Amino acid sequence: MKRVLIDTDVILDFFIDRQPFSENASKILSLCENRIISGYVTPVILSNTYYILRQIASHYKVIEKLNQLLSITDVLTMDKSVVINALNSDFRDFEDALQNFTATKKGNVDVIITRNVKDFKTSEIGVLTPESYVRTVNARR
User: Fold this and answer.
1) pLDDT tens-digit profile of 22-71?
2) From 3.40.50.2000, 3.30.365.10, 1.10.1530.10, 3.40.50.1010, which CATH number describes the 3-133 domain?
C-alpha cells in the first residue's frame, strides 16, 4: 500500500471546496478512507489547516473537521533531527522543508501530494500533484 503525505493545500482544497482542485483532493482522501493508500499528515499541516479554517468557521467546527481527517490519516512525528535537517537544507520554504524531512524520516512516506510541486524540487522522494496521483492510481486499476 502506498504511503502518502497529504500537504496542507490539498486538505484545504477539500474542506473549503476550492475549485477546480477539490475533486482530486476528495479522491485522495477517499483513497485513504477506503484504505487503498495510507495517508499521513504532520503536526504543522494540522496547525496550518486549523489556522486557515478558523478564519471561516468556529473552533468547534474546525476541530470536528480535523477529527474527521484524523479518522482516515495518521500523524507523522517531528523531532529535533527533522528541524535541523530542514534548517540546513536547500529548501527555500522552511515549512515545506519540515514536511519533506518528516516524510523522508525512516522511509515513512513514498510520495508527497501537493499542488506546490516546485517547492519540493530537492526532495528525495516522489512529489506529485493530486491530479497526477489520481491518474497514476486509476492507471493501475
Assistant:
1) 999 999 999 999 999 999 999 999 999 999 999 999 999 999 999 999 99
2) 3.40.50.1010
